[in-house]
Structures
1.
Amino acid sequence: MVNPPNIGYLISPATSQPYNWICHLKITMKSRAVYGGSGFWVNLPGSDVKCILTAGHCLFDKDGYAEVVEVKFPGQQAFWASGSELHVSKKWTLNSTELDDFGAICIKDVTKSQGGFGYSTIVTNQQLLTTDATMFGYPVDKPYQTMWGSGGCVCEVTSLQFMYTFCADRGQSGSPVYIWHNGYVSHQFITPLYYSLSLFSSSNASRVNLVDGCWSPPL
Amino acid sequence: MHEILSWLEYPMFQRMLQAAGSDQKLVKIAKAATAWAGSGSGLVIARYKKDEYTVLDFIPLESSPGGSPPIEQVKYAIASNAFPKTYLRLDGYGLFSKKKITDRGEGTVNCQSTAQAWEFFNIILDSTVSGKVNIQSAEFPGVFLRMDAGCVSEDHPDGDLGSVNAQWTADSFERFELV
């Protein structure tokens, strides 16, 4: 699926997999400012804790962690997360650079989770550069809590980031950018909201790697 | 991913690799990996009695949506809990080519600063002894982590270079407990 930049698909109803693993976040910061964001379940077999991955800046700003985050998955009632359920990279709390812009909402109530994206840290750069990627989330310029997305090529890969040829809008921070891997829908990235104002309207995303700055896929 | 998994109680887990049936004869990552090197770096040896360098992080590298694959199909990186960016590395190329058992094992087990193919392992349930496991190289199927636990004791707690290496197929020296 390859689309011109900025033209996306509306998913409605979004109650089938993998769309029902992608949630809308209504984030209330300590300053009482309210923002919209996105996140997604990641499947962790055997874990007692269920994990929603998102962008670090959706959970943590200059005042610290968000006061409360309302989490709404398609076709389900919203629930709230706060306090020790919110996590961001330690490096994000110190430096807030885009490379470390990842976070997670970890929840022990397993009834709130119904599967989630798989993940792989073993996908090579070459595989990424020859595979179309897809992203869905909740842009704020669209009707409230409606899911939109698009797809396209991964045009450049580094060990910590990749650049893609489709655009993310505000509110889609924390959306999964995913590929089919070994027959599975497999998440490897999250999409912080960083724009590269190049001719190709490319966007950047942090890779979720084995270890921060340590994983170097074969070229 | 390492950091994300560390926020959870599972699936990343911390254990020691103890020779099956032994009393605290453990795999020890004694020296950290330096910068990436083709031949690896660091030092992996046998150890009598636990210390801070015998604790290992087992990091699953893949998951699939909605399913829970058998543990034997999951690839793990095995990292030092004491040293950052230090992963167990197994060079089993020679053993895999020959596909023959050698008396004292062969190959090289040391460390690498990143986890790539030679640093991926499968945890195989031992086919002959219940509750024990074999650590198989994912890159060289049939090649297993081997430890000569007889070389360490109360008087000689740290084993020598080569006390941990590799073997073609798994037998008693390739049998471990996750403790």
2.
Amino acid sequence: MTGSVSITRRLVVTVLVLELISAVALIVAITVHERHVQLKAFDASLVATAESLMGAVQDTEDEGDNVMLDMRGVQVAQDAAFRVEDERGRLLGSAGEPPRFEMPSSEAPTFREVDVGSRRYRFLVLQALRIVDPGKPNGGIRHRITLVYGIPDGHVWHEVFEAVRFFAMATAILLGITAAVMAWLVRKGLSPVYELAREAELINPSDWHFKAPISAKKTAELRPLAIALEVALARLQRSFEQQKRFTNDAAHELKTDVAIVKSSLQLLSMRQRTVEEYIRGLVVSLDDFTRLESTVQKMLTLARLEQPTPDDREKLLESCSLRDVIEDAVHQSKPLAELKAIAVSFDFNAEARVPINSHDALLLCSNILLNALQHSPNGATVRIAMEGTQETARLKVEDQGEGISEEDRAYIFEPFYRGDPSRSRKSGGTGLGLSICKAICEKAGGSIEMVNNPAGGALVTVNLPAEPLEPVSISSASVKVQ
Amino acid sequence: MRVLLIEDEQRLAENMVAALRESGLAVDHAADGEAGSHFAEQGVYDAIVLDLMLPRKSGLRVLQDLRRDKFHTPVLILTAQEGKESVVNLLNAGADDYLGKPFDLGELLARIKALIRRAKGVSTPVLAISDLELDTVQQTVRRRGQFLDLSPTEYRILEYLMHRPRAVVSQQELLEHLYDFDWEHHSNVIEAHISNLRRKLNLAGAEPLIETLRHRGYRLRKDLPAS
């Protein structure tokens, strides 16, 4: 695959490069050190041989006070070159062809490196005083002896090269072993990644179950990924199941409504009927059809509300006065309230603009209000209260109905959920009203909840973010619809 | 014939009850699973139409309880659920037939009638005993090729008797199977209908078809001497 990056390869190469750099540095250091050590040893042997040569300079047996070189007992290397002269330039002894050096002023031994023929030599130039007959009264005759002694230094470099070669070989072997071990270790260390991948590969739409392998959970670096995967998948699975349930419920609901419309029309056409029967049948069929239409309408509304808004700012642009909307909702529900002789009172302690468009806000308020009216006994009272702070607006709707049971509470906002299924259809709900309310509230960044009022009946509380307004002094108003 | 409809959807149930009654069946309606179970356990129904999604007690439970208690009434399931699997489960649980919502009312009636027929051991919609023919689809009766004009109740009594030839059918049984709870019924009503039926069936020179067995009931004679 082009452009892919292998962690294994990258790690191994990094380690090998580092190891190689340190090996090179080590070899350089070893070369310097080895050369130094070898030269020191070389020089020491040069000095020792030169000293013994110097020691071999002795008094001659003749009358003059000359000196000579007695080579007996002196061992010089085969390829050594040396020359021993006295102060008058008389050659006492030599071997090879040592070059002539400018004599140093001091007596300290000096080293020189010179090519002789094709070989490189290292020479020691040594000056020493020889006194012939030191016991004589004149103190003897002094002779200044100059000695040049050298041997080829190829040996030194050979030793250094050998040492470097040994280290280089060792390094190469070490690099090879490291590469192999690293590759194996890294691959082994990464095996939880492969296991995690294998497990993740098994996920498909029909089987969302995912359990991260233990190896992945035991690996500190992988644990966050494994846990994140598990959590994300569990969430997806939940939402997938919710969608599936919704689809099933919606299908059931639609099929039932269609079945009603269809059976009404088929019943009508089963045999010849009177005009009155046909008219009545058509009216009933139209009612049935209206209910089907309203179910579809509500499903579409819910789908629209649950669609994420592409731009959050867009929805903030739309806002409406909660008070106006509540008044509209009360007005709209007037016929039902009158039918059931229910008094609707409202109490405004604040005014607020909420970030919902007026259509949705009206839907929210009238759904809550209709729900309260439907669950209230005839002649009861429904109380609406609105209060607010700078940031939030709160709407409370209380009814005097039978309240909600504890097991229903968790599901009351679920689509198509009905507290008591046997009653539902008769009261005309599709089971979507409260889901739509919840979707509207959540889209606006608010919340909705339903609890039982201690005094009896249900209490719906809606909390919405509000856009602050100038405080308006509105006296509490009470309207009674009879 | 008397049918029990267990369906929680009020409007759908109203339509189905009306259609079933118009096709000559007596119908009782239960709006939830528990009431349905109680109705069904009386054992007076010739067929049961059962919705699956019911409040209080699911349709499947109603069916399982019925079969466990050895009620062999044919059951037709109404379902809005998708999937072959649930159909297989239903049939294995003792259902005799099923229909998916939204269904065709005509098909529902045909299937119910077919279920009733089969449960009574008849395989065609036209019942014939000697020279008497009863068409359960057209709801017509002919004797010796001649159409007889029967009232709905007379037709239903005859249909019931023809489904059980040679068996003695008591007045009580007729009452149970021909009338639903909405009807005011007394046994002397049956007597009156039977006597009318007898009169209409009696063509000149033909043998009487319906026998009366004192304190026991009525019987349709099957083997008439060839006239």
3.
Amino acid sequence: MEVVEILRTLRRRWAATLLVAVIAIGAAVGARMSTHNTTTGAATVQLLVDSPSSALANLSENPAPLISRAGVFAQVMTSQAVVQSIAKAAGVPEGQVTAQGPYSGSAESLNVITPAEARSNQIVAEKAVYRLSFVAQQNEPVITTTVQAPTTDAAAKLAAAVYPGVQSYIAGIQREGKTPERDRVTLRQLGPAQVGPVSGGSRGTLTVAAFLGVLIAGLLAILGFESVRRRDRELDRLGADLDAHLESVAQGNPPAHMASGERRR
Amino acid sequence: MKASAPPRGSRWRRSGAAVALLLAAALAALLVGFRPSLAPPGLHPRGVTLGAAREQLLVDSSSSVLADERAITQYQSELGAQIALGYVLYLRSHAATETIGREIGLGAKSIQASGPFTLLLDRTNYARELPSLPEPRTVNPDYRLLADVNGATPVVTLYAQAPTFRAARAIVAAARELLKDHVSAQEREHPQPNGTAVVIRALGPPTGGVVDPGARWDLMGLVFGLVLAFGASLILARSRRRARARATQLQIDRLDRLDDEPPGSDEWPHTRRVLPWALAGFIGMMFLVPFDSINLPIHVGVNGTLDRPVLIALAMFWAASVAVVSGAARPRVRFGRVHVAVLAFLAACLLSVALNGHALSNLGEVELTVKKLALLISYVVFFCITASVLRPREVARFAALMVALGCVVALGTIVEYRWHYNVFYELWGKVLPVTKPEELDTIDSIGRLTIYGPTLQPLELAAMFSMVLPFAILGAIDAATKRRRMLYTIAVGILIAGGVATARKSSLVVPGAVILLLAFYRPRDVLRTVGRLAVVLFVIVHFLSPGALGSVVSQLEPGHINSALTTTDRTARYDAVTPDLLRHPLLGRGYESYDPHKYRILDNQYLDLLITVGAIGTILYILIFGAMISAARPLIRDRSGHDPRRSSLALAAVATVASVAIGSALFDVLSFPHVPYMLFFVAAMILALREPSPAPEAARLTGARPLGEAGPPGAAAPPDPDPAIEPAPEPAEREPVFA
């Protein structure tokens, strides 16, 4: 089918073409509106794992145990117990928060090939709009928390809730275990959270993808339908020609146009 | 004239067939979603739904490491991690899996348990497997537990997968309680000093959910649609078979013989048309330049690799030709089944992205998808341009060009294999900003040298040789002179030698399949030629790439093929990606959004498409191959022997298409542009072969009249004479153009 023929067909089927165009525009608008709550905000906050007499201020204290503890904390902070506590402190539904850690978590793992069972959990967590990532530093007792949220305000709010959330969970265990005041693990937030906007450009892409996808599929459907109908008609005509030819041959009188191999118009 | 109505019997027959088809489709859909039983009569849902749950346990002491600063040192942390590993291995034991199975209501059946995966314990175990007794337990593989530790922190993560979320959560809870009981029992038997006993601390309740809430209905809908489409196609194909055969024959009869080239035919390379030369330049770039590793410092949208600006220039030439040139020299855009399949696939890819925009944006994967979509659109544009430019008689010449360029690449690959010098990257690196692959000239995990040639993946390089090989083999078979036959034979040898120099199994498997396909259509010619040339080819291959053939053959030996990491890794993926497949079974998670560096290297285009564009996209991808092959088939099957040259070229093109279809099961073809560009070029060749050659006519600008033709300026060029009515052109002196 040549381009001119395609345009003619679409003009002949103008109502269907118009319908496809309208649906494509609708799909584009729908895609644009459905992405209004996707990630646009990010924040980073750092926590220091410390002792009551701060290791930063005490020359005689060896920081190595604190560095080991930071690794354990980073892992523990991905657990649902801590995530619940952070969500409560931030005032967001806990089902919309997910966390990933240095090794494994509900969100995607960091550089680990994941078996089906763990991948299933990652997939379930894919739609959570609030995402936390905890990574312990190599040589310092510091945990860096990265927050992703639908808006910068929400990211800031969640980042601000990380310290009180974790602290509240730890305090609960300390109360439960009656840990002496002087031996209690102390968490300190290292300054306010850094907040900023991210990845704002996906909306336009998704809008264009929805529009083009529906438009191409719709136009192909119209052209395919027309093409099948036309082919059907041609085959009908050819079939009738062949039948006539066979009948004539049976009667010993082949028609001139078939005898010469000519195609009847 | 009003068409006469079909007879009543025929109408009833058609209606009956349609109803039967609908019933068959509904039944198939029902059987996919539900399992029928006779006693008691009923339908039971099939286990296509996956529930998932997760929980973390801290291997702690009574004065918690989280609470008490005295409770942990680095040594204690590592010790805790080792104890956690021991617990994970306990949870994999027969006793534990049986107990959990009993706890969750499986009766005498055990659950399936595995882990840890972060430590990759199984990878470090090189001990030879000894014969073992058959599995003594009955395991229900639908109920699965995975316990993981990282070896550095005392945290055990439990993952469960089961037909429902409730069952998955029950598995995790049962495993947790079992572990606690086990630890308590051990402590009762071996009492510990105060404060040193292990405490298993659950870090919150289990989390999770259903992975694929609508998978059953999606699969049922898909099967319904597939059965309906397949049945309707069969019914349509059966009806009017004679008329179809006649139509195909008429189409073949319209074609002129490629060897009968009239004087002044204006065909590449004897042409002043710009576009064929531009295409030849693009093909040259495709073979000789590592264009995918050249990022030009210019902004051309999402990706600045060399092929994009070149393609944009080609598209501009093409648009200018369409606008300015008229007559036979003007590119002729004709949409056929291949165009439809390609555009339908593109539409499915776009829709998969649009429908999953929210999740993709959430995971930060939109940018990757956009890059891949841009690459796919590049392929489509290249195909549309090429299909409108190529002429039938040029196909043979471009095929010869591809064979020659393939030999140059193969020789470059042999140089790389023998002297560790990559001609393509080194030479182009002197004039363009080439980024060398990190693994160039290194040894891979199973001891093979990593050979790249002008590509980004050894498999891509091997696939290129397999794609050119059919043209060389048929060139050798159809050669009109001894000299040409010898040249093509040498070309076959060089291409195979280049392929085995990549040390990939595919370098022998895919050419083997290609030769079998050629032999299916032309058994006598192909087997006789290959058999006759086997010794010559072996000598050429062994001389050019000494040792490579043995290395590849040894990988294919029965004891090795199933145990090599490259094979076991591939098969291990099928289970691991099941949740991804079931999450969005129809349209996937978004075209090529499954980042291999983030999730898993699949090395399988079909699997990748099933995950990213779903069953619909994958079927459309397969239909692209089907459309290409079905477009070429009438030419190959031409019983009248109308034009053996067209038939040979069409067969070679089909074998090339088949090699890509096979290659798609071995690596992610669409991510490595050399192969798709070549595939679409070959597809354009097939479409060109289906067309009659245009009448000789010099190129002229729109509005200008052809020389010697009367008529008003701007009049359309005369339509192609109807070959069914007009006598065929008198054959000129036969001049071989391919062989």
